[in-house]
C-alpha cells in the first residue's frame, strides 16, 4: 500500500513539474529587444515580452541559439524588478517560471553576448538573429533596437526575411528594426554596423568594408525587387491576353464534345422503344452496371446469381441449396461466377450460402473474395465494351488534362508573383478540364438508348406497387424487374422482398400461384449473404500501421536564432 502511494505521488510530482504543457494558450502581444553594443565588443541585451494567457500557465520559454564562436552569459529574468527562476535545457532553451491563470504579464530578460561583433576595416558589424524559423510563436508587435556604445556615429543597417526593409536609423545613432507582426517559423537576421572609433581598439578580422558590404546587399535587393516587379508586370500582361484565349480554346473542344454527345442522346430518345420492362440487350449484370454508375456491389452479385437461376443454368433446391444444371453457352463472367461459387466453395454440383459464409470465416481465404469479385467485375465490363455502347475516347480524355500541364506552371508563377487573378483563372481552367475528362462518357445512339430506358425503368420500379407487376407483366418480366431492382438498390423492391420474407403467406398483392415471392426472398437472402461474406473477408484481410512523426528547428543565417513560447 505504501509503495503504491509512493508511486502515485511520484507520478503526480513529475506531471506537475513538467515544463511543457500542450494545453497552454497565449499570445505574445509585444516583444521589445534592445541590444547595447559595448566598447569592449560584448553586447548587453535587454528584452521585454508581454504575454496574454487565456489558460492557466507556469511561465514563458525563451530559446537563445548562438554560433560556436559566441557565448551567452549572465542570463536573468525579472517581473517588475523581482527576479524569476530560470531552468535551462540543452544550453539554449530557458524556462522562466512565473505561474498564473488567465492574465497578462510582462517578463524582462537580460543577458550578455560575447564575441558577437565582427570587426571590418571601417566599421564594427553586429550580425545576429534574435529569432529564426524554429520559433513556434507569433509576435504581434516586434521591435529590435541596436544601440551604439556612444558618440556620434554614421551607422548602416539591413534586415532580412521578417525584418527586411524595416530598418530605421535614428538621429542619436540607434538602429531600429520595426518588424511589427511577425509570424512563427520566420527567420529575422539583422545587420547593423557602426564606426570603429567608438569602440576600444579591436583586431580587424575582415579586410574589407562593412559599409560597402551592406550597400551591396541593398543594391542587390533593389535590383532583385526591380527584376521581380518587371517580371510581374510582364506575366500580368501575358496572362491577360493568353488565359482568355486558352479558356476559349478549351471551351470550343469541350463544347463540341458535349454537343455531339447531346445529339446522340436526342437521336436515341426519338427512336426509343417504350416496352416495359425493357428487353435486355446484354446480360442483367452488365445491364445493371452500365446503367447504375458502373459499380459492382454485393447486390449486383446477387442479381448475377439470380440471373443464372432465371435462365435455367442454376436451380434452387427445397433445402436452400443451389444446384448447377448446366454450363452451356455461359458468358465469361457467368462461367467465372459458377467456378467461384460451385467449384471453389461448393462441391462442383451444389452451393449454399452457409458454406460460403464458413469459407470466408477462414483467414486463409481472406483475399479470395475480393480477387474473385474484381475479376468478375472486369469480365462484366468486357461484355459491356463488346456491345459498342460508348465511343472510343481514351486518347481525347487523356490528352485533354495533359495539355493543361503548362497551365500549372502559369498558376505557380502567378502565385509566386502575387498575381491572384491569373492564378485563380489558371486553376479554374485546370480543374474544369480535368473534371470534364474524368466524367465525359461519349455514348453511341444505342448506348444512350440502353441508359435512358433502364434508368426510366428504375424510376418506374420506385413507383409501381408489386401487385401491378403481376397484373401487367409475365413471370419472366417480373423476375427481370426484381433482378434489376435488387441490383440497382431500388428501396421499394428491397422493402417488398423484406415484407415477403417476414410473411410469406399469399396476400392481396401477391398471387398464390406466383413464383415471384420465393424468387424475391431468395434474392434478399443472397444479398445479405454476399454482404456478410464480403465483410468477413475484409475483416480477416485488413491490416494497419503507423509511422512516427517528428519536429524540427533551425537557426538564422547570421549569429544567434531562437524563439519564444509559453508553458
From TrEMBL:
Biased composition (Gly residues): 542-567
Signal peptide: 1-22
Sequence ranges assigned to domain Predicted membrane protein YciQ-like C-terminal in this UniProt record: 294-464
One Pfam family named in its UniProt record: DUF2207
Keywords: Membrane, Signal, Transmembrane, Transmembrane helix
Chain segments carrying region Disordered: 535-567
Domain DUF2207: from-to ranges: 27-193
Listed transmembrane segments: 241-260, 398-417, 423-439
Name used for this protein in its record: DUF2207 domain-containing protein
Amino acid at each position: 500500500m505504501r509503495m503504491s502511494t509512493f508511486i502515485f505521488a511520484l507520478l503526480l510530482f513529475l506531471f506537475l513539474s513538467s515544463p511543457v504543457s500542450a494545453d497552454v494558450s497565449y499570445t505574445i502581444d509585444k516583444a521589445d529587444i534592445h541590444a547595447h553594443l559595448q566598447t569592449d565588443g560584448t553586447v548587453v541585451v535587454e528584452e521585454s515580452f508581454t504575454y496574454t494567457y487565456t489558460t492557466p500557465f507556469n511561465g514563458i520559454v525563451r530559446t537563445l541559439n548562438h554560433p560556436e564562436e559566441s557565448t551567452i552569459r549572465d542570463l536573468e529574468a525579472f517581473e517588475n524588478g523581482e527576479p524569476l527562476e530560470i531552468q535551462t535545457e540543452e544550453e539554449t532553451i530557458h524556462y522562466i517560471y512565473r505561474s498564473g491563470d488567465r492574465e497578462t504579464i510582462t517578463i524582462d530578460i537580460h543577458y550578455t553576448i560575447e564575441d558577437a561583433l565582427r570587426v571590418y576595416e571601417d566599421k564594427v558589424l553586429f550580425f545576429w538573429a534574435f529569432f529564426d524559423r524554429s520559433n513556434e510563436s507569433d509576435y504581434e508587435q516586434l521591435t529590435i533596437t541596436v544601440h551604439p556604445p556612444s558618440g556620434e556615429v554614421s551607422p548602416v543597417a539591413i534586415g532580412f526575411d521578417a525584418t527586411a526593409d524595416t530598418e530605421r536609423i535614428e538621429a542619436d545613432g540607434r538602429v531600429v528594426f520595426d518588424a511589427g507582426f511577425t509570424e512563427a517559423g520566420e527567420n529575422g537576421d539583422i545587420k547593423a554596423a557602426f564606426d570603429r572609433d567608438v569602440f576600444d581598439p579591436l583586431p580587424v578580422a575582415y579586410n574589407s568594408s562593412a559599409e560597402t558590404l551592406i550597400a551591396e546587399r541593398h543594391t542587390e535587393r533593389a535590383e532583385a525587387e526591380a527584376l521581380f516587379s518587371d517580371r510581374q508586370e510582364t506575366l500580368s500582361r501575358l496572362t491577360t491576353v493568353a488565359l482568355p484565349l486558352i479558356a476559349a480554346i478549351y471551351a470550343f473542344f469541350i463544347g463540341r464534345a458535349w454537343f455531339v454527345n447531346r445529339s446522340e442522346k436526342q437521336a436515341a430518345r426519338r427512336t426509343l422503344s417504350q416496352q416495359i420492362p425493357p428487353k435486355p440487350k446484354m446480360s442483367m449484370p452488365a445491364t445493371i452496371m452500365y446503367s447504375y454508375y458502373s459499380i459492382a456491389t454485393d447486390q449486383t452479385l446477387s442479381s448475377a446469381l439470380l440471373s443464372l437461376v432465371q435462365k435455367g443454368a442454376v436451380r434452387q433446391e427445397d433445402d436452400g441449396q443451389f444446384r448447377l444444371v448446366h454450363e452451356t453457352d455461359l458468358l465469361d463472367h457467368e462461367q467465372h461466377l459458377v467456378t467461384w461459387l460451385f467449384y471453389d466453395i461448393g462441391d462442383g454440383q451444389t452451393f449454399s450460402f452457409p458454406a460460403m459464409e464458413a469459407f470466408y470465416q477462414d483467414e486463409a481465404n481472406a483475399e479470395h473474395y475480393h480477387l474473385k469479385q474484381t475479376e468478375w467485375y472486369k469480365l462484366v465490363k468486357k461484355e459491356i465494351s463488346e456491345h459498342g455502347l460508348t465511343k472510343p475516347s481514351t486518347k481525347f480524355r487523356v490528352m485533354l488534362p495533359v495539355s493543361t500541364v503548362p497551365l500549372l506552371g502559369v498558376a505557380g508563377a502567378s502565385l509566386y508573383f502575387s498575381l491572384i487573378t491569373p492564378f485563380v483563372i489558371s486553376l479554374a481552367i485546370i480543374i474544369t478540364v480535368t473534371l470534364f475528362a474524368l466524367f465525359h462518357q461519349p455514348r453511341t445512339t444505342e448506348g444512350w438508348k440502353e441508359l435512358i430506358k433502364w434508368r426510366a425503368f428504375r424510376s418506374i420500379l420506385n413507383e409501381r406497387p408489386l401487385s401491378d407487376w403481376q397484373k401487367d407483366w409475365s413471370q419472366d418480366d417480373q423476375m427481370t424487374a426484381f433482378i434489376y431492382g435488387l441490383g440497382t438498390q431500388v428501396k421499394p423492391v428491397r422493402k417488398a422482398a423484406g415484407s415477403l420474407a417476414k410473411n410469406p403467406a399469399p396476400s392481396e398483392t401477391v398471387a398464390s400461384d406466383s413464383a415471384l415471392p420465393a424468387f424475391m426472398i431468395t434474392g434478399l437472402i443472397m444479398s445479405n449473404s454476399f454482404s456478410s461474406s464480403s465483410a468477413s473477408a475484409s475483416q480477416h484481410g485488413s491490416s494497419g500501421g503507423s509511422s512516427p512523426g517528428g519536429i524540427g528547428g533551425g537557426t538564422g543565417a547570421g549569429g544567434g536564432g531562437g524563439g519564444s513560447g509559453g508553458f
